[in-house]
Amino acid sequence: MSTIALGAHRAAYEVRGYFRSGDTLFFTFLFPVFMLALFSTIFDTEGGISGGPGMPALSAAELYLPAMLAAGLLLSGFQNLAVDIAMERSDGTLKRLGGTPLSPVSYFAGKIGQVLATGLLQAAILVAVAAVVFNVPLPSSLEDWGTFAWVFLLGLVASALLGIAVSALPRSGRSASAVVVPIALVLQFISGVYIFFWQLPDWLQYVASAFPLVWMARGMRAAFLPDEYAALEPGNGWELGWVAIALALWLVIGLIMSRATFRWIRRDA
Q: Which residues contact 256 (CB under 8 A, 6 or more apart)?
């Protein structure tokens, strides 16, 4: 079988395994949906929330939807793959795969294919829940949906490659969650997922901008929030060109790091 065919076959296998894991389904697939519902219920106020004078007031669901979409990319790509691969390395799965015709490229393709499939479904559920349950108005222009599409694709692939790279850090499958989850959690807090980005101190905004989640969330805000809210961003605009550059750069970094660090067996095993 060719590299592409092996990757596609592996992706189908990964998707089946993903949906058979209850804890993975909740903590990476349904968690953003749960958090959207929770924040929308807790913080929704009569008359909505405004980012400042002259800005339209929005419901909590409208403000949190872009953040939860970005968090879903991080959880599905980065957190899920980093933990999953570390556990596969620990339980001997990767060692067995290393003795088969499956190449690292096909293995990566299978993992990324699984993340794309589950990420698309997760995003569809998030948008549907926001629109149907919380009456969030969806983008009305093809340009905004196009922005969502390329931010989603670049962000998800970059997150997946970084997850593959970070999977080399845990020394065992049992320590994988303890190593990876705090990284993902800190990134979500400093990147405007749980706290509105404009409410963070300027210095923390600049620190967070060194990481990809900030740019994923910014791109999602550009697609789903009114243009007036661009004034709250650093630089007073969506600056989608910089979003594309940052995500593409992190994709390349993730590709280089994942290929450099990936091993079927840990060298110190």
A: none
Q: What is the pLDDT of residues 59-82, one digit of tens each?
A: 999 999 999 999 999 999 999 999
| Model confidence band, residue 119 (pLDDT cutoffs 50, 70, 90) | very high
Amino acid identity of residue 76, one-letter, is: S
pTM: 0.92
CA distances from 105 to 44, 81, 90, 214, 256 (A): 46, 15, 20, 28, 12
